[in-house]
Amino acid sequence: MSSGGVGHRAPAGSERVLVIGAGPGGLEAARLAAALGSEVLVVEKQAGLGGTPIAESYAALTHGFRSAEEAMGEMMAAAVDQAGVTIQTSTEVTGVSGSAGHFLVTLSSGDPVEAGAIIIATGFQHFDPGRETQQYGYYEFADVITLVDAEKMLKAHNFVTPSTGEPPKRVAFIQCVGSRDRQIGNEYCSKVCCGISSKQAIEIRQQVPDARVFVFYIDMRMYGYWENEIYWPAQEEHKVNFIKGIVTEILAKGGRLVIRGEDTTMGRPMEIPMDVVVLAVGMEPSQGTRRMAEILGVATNKYGFIERAPESLDTVATSVPGIFVCGAASGPADLDDTISSAGAAAAKAVALVRRAEVPA
Amino acid sequence: MSLIPIEAIRRKPAPDPADAPTEDIRELLFELEDAGELIVQRVPEPYMEVMTKYGRTKKIPVEQTWHHKSCGQCGHIPGYSTSIFWLNRKLGLDYFDPTDQTSCTAWNYYASATSNAPAQAGVAVRNFAAALETGYFPMIHCATSYGHYKEVRHQLVHHADLRAKVRDIMGKLGKPLVLPEEIVHYSEWVHAMRDRFVEKQVYDFSNLTVTVHPACHYYKLIKEDAIYDPDIYGGERTATVSAMVMALGARVADYSTFFDCCGFGFRHILVERDFTRSFATQRKIEVMKEEANPDVTITHDTGCVTTLDKSQFSPEAHNRKVGIPVMSDAQFAALAMGAHPYRVCQLHWHSTDNRPLLEKMGIDWKAAWEEFSEDLARIERGEIEYLTWEDAGV
Amino acid sequence: MATATLAPALFTRDPGATLSPNHYTEVPYEEKLRLWEQVKADSRYSDYMYGCYECGICVAACPSARFYDFSPRKIAQAAGREDVELIYEQMNDDVWNCSQCFSCDRCPRQNSPGGLITILREVAVTNGLASSKKALEGYSRIVYKIMTTGTQVSPDMLQPDAFPDWGPDVRTVSENLDTWRRAMPPETHHTTSASWTVSKKTLTELYLIWHYSGVMDMIAQVDEGLHMIIMDVMEESLEEAGYEI
Known about the structure:
The complex is a heterotrimer. By secondary structure, chain A is α/β, with parallel strands linked by helices. Helix content of chain A is about 25%, strand content about 25%. In chain A, α1 packs parallel to α3, α1 packs parallel to α8 and α5 (about 195-205) runs parallel beside α6. By secondary structure, chain B is an alpha/beta fold. In chain B, about 45% of the residues lie in helices and about 10% in strands. Chain B contains 18 helices and eleven strands. Chain B has helices at about 25-35, 70-75, 80-90, 105-110, 115-135, 145-160, 160-175, 185-190, 195-200, 215-220, 240-245, 270, 275-290, 300-310, 315, 330-335, 355-360, 365-380, and strands at about 40, 45-50, 55-60, 65-70, 95, 135-140, 180, 210-215, 250, 295-300, 325-330. In chain B, the strands form four sheets. Chain B has a four-stranded parallel beta sheet. In chain B, β2 and β3 form a beta hairpin. Chains in contact: A-B, A-C, B-C. Chains B and C meet through α2, α3, α4, α5 and α6 of B and α4, α7, α9, α11 and α12 of C.
């Protein structure tokens, strides 16, 4: 058996790559694996494709403010049109046996399928703000919303104060909701919320020019080009106010919301009326990720994400050889991370099913 | 401002205890008991179950309770503790009021720091051992004691050196190291039992507007151990006190400083009183008055009742917009069930004027005060030594 | 500093109303370090101090931060940085502003600035810092009350000169105290010198706890006179009960 090259065909191995999840990660992994010559089956539990950006009606992506629907539409078309890709929607994986090169997977749609490699692309879900240990009142006040609720309104070009239906005069974003918190148990940073909030802040300023927009943060995490493409324009062009000091309570006063925090620059408690408060909710493993981890027997970390060994430089390996992971199923990821890791997973999966050595 | 959670828009799913982000301290207690390190006093049956912040259930004993009293209550607002006992007696429940009980000494600890962890833990477990000796299960009257005892429980479970030291001290007293299975605040008992109070309610409270002040030491210390309910405040704030007030038919009005401390300050109420007085007035009473204009404000802690009740006199003299009667949930429930406002609720010890409230409740305070004045006269004449429970109708 | 015997101004927002920050003793760095090491050695320290990313939630929730120039965030930051000089200042001044309400336990890092302050105060008291004695002037009657009766307050403490700002009701209570205390059903409440009747045996046990845990030594640091009085009462009681300490 040669090492590293494409070569011998082992008997009774399956050449199929199974991709679980048809969000951005799954779509890209499927497209690339098929483009590299493999047969790919995508299994998606929802009725439609596109994953979270479509299911939750994202407006613009942080990537150049491109319409999520448009960008995802292209990704979906590319995968659907790619020869070698078969997609089964409204279908779930229910069981698995075998090992790398020879998996037998049972599906909710009926007959079991063979696969030589599996790619988990089941992504994340947004943190439920009802579990937050600060007092944000998401389940008490209609005008306290999440990033997801805001995306829907922005996509419809109808960003309003939910309780009145009127355009808001003052909007606040609260960062790190459900992340970076030992009391909740989600100690990690969810990576994308600072970028998304700043993007939404800009969109609100564009759609509702009379609104003053505030972002209350612990740190602004504007990695790489987000700093100059999003953060600086938000402050300089769009006059979004970034204030260091997170909010601890949201209550109602005189028919409006009032937020309470510390303006740490001034070193004083502050109390400000707001019309709408947007909670920048972080990422948690999705139900699909949790279930697949259990069914496929892959290790998860203490947060329930699929474990990538921290000392490993392999960004897509799981604890089970032949099963790969991409995107937010293994931890907070932005779109760049997801698409890159989908490519890496696809390449490694294809190499495996062609009976080359499993590459390190 | 409405209190009803916004069901039409979104409904909070009941928290799944499997997802709880904290340890379950009771499991650790039982482990330590199995290892022979301490004794855990079990909640007696029958008990009721309530839900705490992360969806776990908490056992609340119905009766056979050992009443861990509060200094400030018994000393300065005795209608508070009297009402707690009265509620038990009205329902025909068996309880015990011990003399073998010290103060929790938490006020001293938080105010003066002339104490330390072993002393505080020692005082706590001595009281718990005393309860165990009687076979009655401790029920804590003061929210400060309650919060502090939750803290002590956490420290004893997690610090073997503290445990050893305290066990040693208890040994010198001839007592074992005891912790109860649950640390129960009486307002949690009131919450669990509220439907039984409603059954015996004789006054109509539907015309009352109430503001609720939740005690910091009840829900901010060891946060997972406090009662929450997805139907009350959408599960976002503790349900204790509010649920009971609503069950009695009164309207709970929200106000924008709900989570603020009352300003008791522990040492401040004695030696830096302008802080306590100003804070209680400006951050709580005036806000409640302006935003909710309640007939009464109800709370469930000794320090909170004292602070809110006593801090209004001076501001009133300075024409501030104050003047809200203050009482505990126990007194409020007792009044609803026909308890005598003076023999039981001892409202004459309160500083704020609660007579308009009593009138609105439909209680003839004039007649009640006449009866009570006659009691006082009989005591002064030496005809009776004390008022009895029979005089209080239970 | 406002005490019960003065008539404090209403709604003063005067930091001078608290302990004056310039009136504590300067000591060598080694002494400040020694005090800080004592704080860290306390078994509760690891429960109260993790790391701080200066989110400000503690200050936002803090009642004292609204009234005093006080910041639980600065307490946590000073501790995290082990800024011994600043900690010594705080131990002599800021810590007495804290209301010990634990609203700051909302900290997402799970710090407890209020808890840190509890330890800082105890170290100040144990080491006899003059500022702690000053902060606790007017408080000794509470210590005396708990040690001699087993309850921290009592009905007979409701005297008009002790609580002038609570209104004329206090006078009414004090004038009718004995009768009023009889006019309530609970048997344990029929006392004016304690909040409830505490049995002698119980009081003895409390003394032993305070003795063996070292609290009596702390009281000696705060107020020697008080310590002597309490020791007399305690020793007599313990002798009667057959204990020798």
